[in-house]
Amino acid sequence: xxxxCEVAMVEALLALGGNVGNSRAILDRAIALLCDGxxxxxxxxxxxxxxxxxxxxxxxxxxxxxAILETLAERFGLQFPAGTRFAYK
Length: 89
What we know:
This protein is an alpha+beta fold. 43% of the residues lie in helices and 19% in strands.
């Protein structure tokens, strides 16, 4: 297991808590989703998309709400109704 996955495991355990149902199965699933072999961590704050990899960090500013919706769907697996708008700074 890579160091990146070990860190993700700790973060997932903290986020999920150790007393939620079958915590080992939940943790295993969370780690599989976090560490899918790509070793990338995505963060979206306002319109700033950050991709963290073990050896580099890249950032991009998304153009508008449609770009946010597309990114949330494609990169995060989150679907919102068309036309959804977000309040951001």
